[in-house]
Amino acid sequence: xxxxxxxxxxxxxxxxxxxxxxxxxxxxxxxxxxxxxxxxxxxxxxxxxxxxxxxxxxxxxxxxxxxxxxxxxxxxxx
Length: 78
Fold this sequence. Notes:
The protein is mainly α and 78 residues long. The protein contains 2 helices and no strands.
């Protein structure tokens, strides 16, 4: 018989800690759960709300030259 019969178990070098299989399984399950939740979230959210565009606001007058502005321009020209 050779040592090949135990090929299912990983060999661990002396002084090296073996990997924590439970932690790896947890991370795998957590990642799969997060991906599943991301896929299921839109289906659970339900139909989207209907958004109506706001009514057209009256056009703003924009820039208007008032007496106050004319007085300022007059003082700035000097």
